[in-house]
Each structure stands twice: as structure tokens, then as C-alpha cells.
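Q: Predict the assembly, please.
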Amino acid sequence: MALKEDVDTEKHRAMIKCPYCYEILPSEENLRCPHCLQFIIDTVIRTDFPSLDKKHCLFCGKKILLEAKICRHCKRWLDEIEQAAKDIDPEDLV
Ligand SMILES: [Zn+2]
Ligand SMILES: [Zn+2]
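A: Predicted assembly structure:
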């Protein structure tokens, strides 16, 4: 069984990150992300390393994590833009 592994992982405890803005969460009991203020209804992200890559929010221009789906500054969802970008035929841009 995986019981022994669970004990071993305590040495380097995996970080938990918000599934929306990908910022690190202080504790797993969070019902609401303190960064993007979203209620966490999806499962949190578990990882051993922090996100380092940043991008600029398309709405407010501030730096957010590359994986972020929501801007922690202006609280706007970035999916809308990505969705719109998908609708554009790349050949139209040539
Ligand atoms: Zn968040
Ligand atoms: Zn923003």
C-alpha cells in the first residue's frame, strides 16, 4: 500500500497552489484563495516547486504566473481571451 510513501513525502512537503491563479496557498483548508479571491471548488495543484515563469495580464498588464487562469490583481479570467484567440484563423494573420 502507499502508506509508507505518504510518510516519506512529509520530508519535502508538496506545495499546494490555487487551481486558478496558481499562487501558493498557505493551507489546504482554504475555501477561498487569498490571492485571486476565488472560492476553490476545483482540486488544488500539488507540486514540489514554485512557478517561476510570469506573463503579463492582458487586462491590467501586471505580472501573473504563466499558468494562471485568472489575474490575481484585477480578478479577470484570462480564458475569455484565449478562447477568442482560438477562433482566429492563423492564416488570416499572414
Ligand atoms: Zn488564486
Ligand atoms: Zn489583471
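Residues 79-87 form the longest helix (9 residues). The longest strand covers residues 15-17.
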